[in-house]
Design goal:
mainly alpha, 9 helices
């Protein structure tokens, strides 16, 4: 069954769409302040589909992500009492408390690590606003952390280019079914334990 290769072909088609950079910017902004889907899911296929524009895509992603991070900072600073109940309702309050403890321990480096890693950056942007982290270090750490991550993703995809795209397309169904099998196996093991 060629389910994953069809999805991959569709994603690559969307990645070449003329308005794809606008969608990438919107997703990057939203993810940094409230949306759960990371921009890497668009940045990687766009950079793979158009390697010559990979650095532009990384710059768009970085700048809009940092702008979204500033929005998250402002949410934390001025509207935390309105979103705090949502953190409880959606089970994110413990993540918020963990982020606070990271800021207490590492300050500037907490936002840098959250910006570069797959840790939910939005939790840290909101927390930075709640604790009134100095704004300039917040923005600088965000630029370096987010920029490092997105330029790395774009660079790796551009480096792979057309040959990587063709190999991924050829093996996408095998990769997709293998990943699905691993996820199901892990879920079963966790439920049994």
């Amino acid at each position: 069954m060629k389910l994953f290769s069809k999805l991959y072909a569709r994603a690559m088609q969307w990645a070449r769409h003329p308005k794809a950079p606008w969608y990438l910017g919107g997703l990057s902004f939203a993810e940094s302040s409230f949306f759960p889907v990371p921009p890497d899911v668009m940045l990687a296929p766009m950079s793979l589909a158009q390697p010559a524009k990979a650095w532009i895509f990384a710059l768009i992603t970085t700048l809009t992500s940092v702008a979204g991070g500033v929005a998250g900072y402002l949410i934390g600073m001025w509207a935390f009492e309105y979103i705090e109940p949502l953190l409880h309702d959606f089970g994110h309050y413990e993540k918020y408390l963990r982020a606070r403890s990271w800021f207490d321990a590492w300050g500037f480096w907490a936002i840098f690590i959250a910006g570069f890693s797959p840790i939910p950056y939005k939790i840290f942007t909101i927390t930075a606003g709640v604790i009134s982290m100095s704004f300039l270090p917040f923005v600088l750490a965000s630029i370096v952390g987010r920029g490092g991550r997105f330029f790395l993703v774009a660079g790796l995809m551009a480096w792979g280019g057309k040959p990587m795209e063709e190999k991924l397309h050829r093996y996408m169904d095998v990769i997709g079914w293998a990943v699905l099998g691993i996820v199901l196996f892990v879920v079963m093991v966790v439920k049994l334990l």
